Amino acid sequence: MKQLVFKSLKYISLLTWLCIICLPIVTLFLGSFMTHEEFSKASSLTFPTSFFYLENYRIAWQEGQMLRGFLLTFVLLICGVFGSVLVGSMVAYILARFNFKFKKVLVLLYFIVSMVPMTVSQVSTFKIVSNLGLYNTIWAPILLYVGADVMMIYIYLQGLEKIPTELDKVAILEGASYFQVYRQIILPLLRPATGTVIMLKVISIYNDFYLPYLYMPSQNLNTIATTLYRFVGPNQTRWEVICACIIISMVPMILLYLVLQKKIYEGLMSGSVKG
User: Where do the TM regions start and end (predicted)?
Assistant: First the structure.
């Protein structure tokens, strides 16, 4: 009897949590098939008159220029992820393997910077980006995605703690340079940490609204996240079209997860076991 009660509570809690997570997505999906009048009168779980009303998707794709948004977001993802892996792993390699003056001070400064919310330092960051001539260009968010995220350094430092320094010494004795040690030994062994960094950066860059909106205000530089703002007006917000935009924007991430779910799961399990 006790086991039956425990099992029932377990399933009830799981189903309740599933409903809480899925409710916003179901609301978006239903709202994307409604007219503006239907949406303004409907509650969260009201069904549309017809699931064949696809005008919102047409407006979202054409007027929102979502193809351009996908391409621009893809470029930001490639540059941001590649730069983060390269910079994060190299900085962590230097901090973990070399002794030099003020090393502890440098690590402490990284820690302090990671504790400061990005919005607090945004005035000074904006001035620096403007003085560099990068405002309203694609290079502004790329620079910030690569250079302003110190969390990746800590992830790589944890990975480097598990790699014995004897491997470096043997390679150097056999004539390898420091860069060859990094590229041929350290970087391949940091694969679990690299998987974690890639996953975190892809999610954060793809969903980021703040940096593209602040540093790329041009209509020709809309990402998938800032495309939604095209349908927010001073007099009227087209929520039903925004719902369609969000549903379309979810498709690539769902497909990516379905294709890579085994590797993502293996990466998480590998990191947890080795941690």
Answer: 12-34, 70-95, 107-126, 138-157, 185-206, 239-260
- Cα(45)–Cα(29) distance, integer angstroms: 10
Using CB atoms within 10 Å of the CB of residue 178, give its burial: 0 to 12 exposed, 13 to 18 middle, 19+ buried: middle
CA 63 – CA 248 distance, rounded (Å): 14
Q: For residue 195, is pLDDT > 50? A: yes
Pull the structure tokens for residue 158: 């944890």
Q: CA-CA distance, 38 to 48, in Å (whole number)?
A: 7
Say if residue 226's pLDDT is above 50. yes
φ, ψ at 232 (rounded to 5°): -105, 115
Q: What sign results for the dihedral spanned by CA atoms 104, 88, 183, 271? A: positive
126: nearest Cα among 113, 107, 143:
143
Tokens of 194: 């690299």
For residue 16, what are its two tokens?
């309740």
Which position has the higher pLDDT, 121 or 191? 191
Residue 217 Cα distances to 93, 137, 144, 213, angstroms: 37, 9, 16, 6
What three-state secondary structure class fits 160? helix
CA–CA separation, 113 and 149 (whole Å): 9
In this predicted model, what pLDDT tens digit does every residue of 79-100 receive, in sequence order?
A: 999 998 998 899 999 988 888 8
CB 97 within 8 A of CB 165: yes
pLDDT in the model for residue 55? 92
Phi-psi region of 201 (alpha: psi -120 to 50; beta: other; left: phi over 0): alpha
The whole-number pLDDT of residue 174 equals 87
Query: Taking the CB of residue 124, how many other CB atoms lie within 10 A of it?
Result: 9
